[in-house]
Amino acid sequence: MLPTYQERENIRTTLSAVLAASPRADAVVVDDGSPDGTAGVVAILGRVQARISLIARNGKLGLGTAYLAGMRHGLDAGYGMIATMDADGSHDPIVLPEMLLRVESGADLVIGSRYAPGGSVENFSLARKVNSAVANGVARTLLGLAVRDCTSGFRVYSTALLRKMRLDELRSTGYSMIPEMLYEATRAGARIVEVPIAFRNREKGESKVTVSEIISWMRTVAALRRF
Ligand SMILES: Nc1nc2c(ncn2[C@@H]2O[C@H](COP(=O)(O)OP(=O)(O)O)[C@@H](O)[C@H]2O)c(=O)[nH]1
Ligand SMILES: [Mg+2]
C-alpha cells in the first residue's frame, strides 16, 4: 500500500515500478484528497490495470491513519502480506521480492533499512540526514527498539502479525505511526528482519514533514514510552 499526498508527478512511475518488480503483488493507493489530483491519476490507471486500486479519502487525515486504512483493506481482502512504501520514488521496489521472500520464510516484519549494514541514504541534505538520524535515535532509545532503522516506511508485515497487533488502540495519526507500529509489533512478539536499502530522496514534489509533524511525532513517541 502506498500512502499519497500531492504525488501526482510520482505516482505513475512508482506504480509501474512496483507492479513490474512484484508480479504477484497488487497495489493500493491511499490518497488524502491531494489538491494536485493524485487520486484522479490513480483512478484512471486502475481502470486499465486491475492490480491497482484506490482508497480516496476526503482530506488530509494523516500518514498514520492512511496506513491503517490500507491495512484494514488488505486484511479484509485476505492478503497474506502487506507492504508499505512511499510513493515518491525513495523506496526502490527492486528489493520488494526479497522482502516478501523473507516473510514467506518465517519473518513477521521485514524492514527496508537505510541504517543496516549495506544500506544508504542518497541525495539528502545534511539537515535531513541529521533530522532522520535523530528521529531514529530517539525512537530507538525511548522505545527500546532493537532495530537499526525504526523510522523507515518501507516494510512488509505478515497479516498474521497484523491480526495480533492491537491496531484499534494505536494512538498515532501522522508519521509517528511508523515507530509506533514497530513498537506494537515488538510487543506482539514479532520476528523482525532488516533488509538493507539504498534510500534515494525524492526528485519531484516536496516532503510533507512539517515542523508541526515533528512536534506531534516527539509528543507521541514520548507518550508511548509511558504506556
Ligand atoms: N495519505 C497520506 N499520505 C501521506 C501523508 N503525508 C505523507 N504522505 C505520503 O507518505 C509518503 C512519505 O512522505 P514524504 O513527505 O515523502 O516523507 P519523507 O520522505 O520523510 O520526506 C509519501 O508517499 C507521501 O505522499 C498524509 O497525510 N496522508
Ligand atoms: Mg519522501
Can you describe what's shown?
It is a single chain. With 227 residues, this protein is an alpha/beta fold. The chain is built from eight helices and nine strands. The chain has a four-stranded mixed β-sheet, with helices on both faces. A three-stranded parallel β-sheet has the order 1-2-3, sandwiched between helices. 42% of the residues are buried. The model has no long low-confidence stretch (mean pLDDT 97). Magnesium ion binds at residues 86, 88, 90, 202, 207. The site of guanosine-5'-diphosphate has 20 residues, from strand 1, strand 2 and helix 3.
- Average of the residue pLDDT scores: 97
Q: Give a count of the beta strands, DSSP E runs of length 2 or more.
A: 9
Helix content: 40-55%
Mass-distribution shape: globular
User: Rg to the nearest angstrom?
Assistant: 16 Å
Number of helices: 8
Q: Approximately how much beta-strand content do the residues carry?
A: 15-25%
How can the largest sheet be summarized?
A: 4 strands, mixed
- Cross-sheet strand order for the largest sheet: 4-7-5-8
User: Which class of secondary structure composition applies to the elements?
Assistant: alpha/beta
Span between termini: 29 Å
The helix-strand sequence is EHEHEHEHEEHEHHEEH
Bound molecules: guanosine-5'-diphosphate, magnesium ion
pLDDT < 50 runs, ≥5 residues? none
Task: Describe what is shown at a glance.
This protein is an alpha/beta fold and 227 residues long.
